[in-house]
Design brief:
Elements: H1 2-25, E1 41-44, E2 47-50, E3 55-61, E4 64-69, H2 75-84, E5 92-94, E6 97-101, H3 107-142, H4 148-181
Antiparallel strand pairs: 1-2, 3-4, 4-6, 5-6
């Protein structure tokens, strides 16, 4: 049962890391990235549909995103949805494709985005600590009448997991900050 609790805590911590990576991928750097537009919802025959289901998204060079819709009639709706999304990108139609140039970020904007990334990582750390607390509470409830040595051992394992995932979060933040501050 103790191993199940530890496994549960670890899987929850992995989910927190996955969520962090997803959130950070949406923070725009000076480079083109498909995740900037892939989850934009487009009105398609009366239904909100993610862009990635309506078109191929290519990155021919680091400063350009090219979107090629599967259904050519949806191109105007896709363009309108990208413009309405507040991500600071300006799409332009070029025949059957949409080109989105990625403008360079100002130094001030880079610092703002670094703060946003730091906040996201702090939220992830809080989530990791919450999973640790829940795991320790579960162990305490399970082993309330058992030896304290066993409880301390399991709490130690949970703490090691916590330290490992906090270190991973710090590494992820460091890489994102380097990416953001790169000119």
């Amino acid at each position: 049962m103790e191993e199940e609790i530890i496994s549960d805590v670890e899987s929850n911590m992995k989910l927190s890391i996955t969520h962090l990576v997803d959130a950070l991928s949406k923070i725009r750097t000076g480079r083109a990235n498909p995740s900037l537009v892939s989850n934009i919802n487009v009105e398609y025959y009366g239904t909100k549909t993610p862009l990635q289901q309506l078109a191929t998204i290519n990155i021919p060079d680091p400063k350009l995103i090219v979107i090629q819709p599967f259904d050519k009639s949806s191109i105007n709706e896709i363009e309108k949805s990208i413009q309405n999304e507040d991500i600071g990108l300006n799409p332009s139609l070029d025949g059957d494709i949409i080109r989105i140039p990625i403008p360079a970020l100002s130094e001030e904007r880079r610092k703002e985005l670094t703060k946003v990334a730091s906040k996201e990582t702090e939220d992830a750390k809080i989530s990791i600590r919450s999973h640790r607390r829940n795991g320790i509470d579960n162990v305490s409830d399970l082993l309330s009448d058992s030896s304290t040595d066993e409880t301390k051992r399991i709490e130690g394992e949970i703490q090691k997991l916590t330290d490992l995932y906090i270190t991973k979060i710090d590494d992820i933040l460091s890489k994102k900050q380097d990416e953001l501050l790169e000119v």
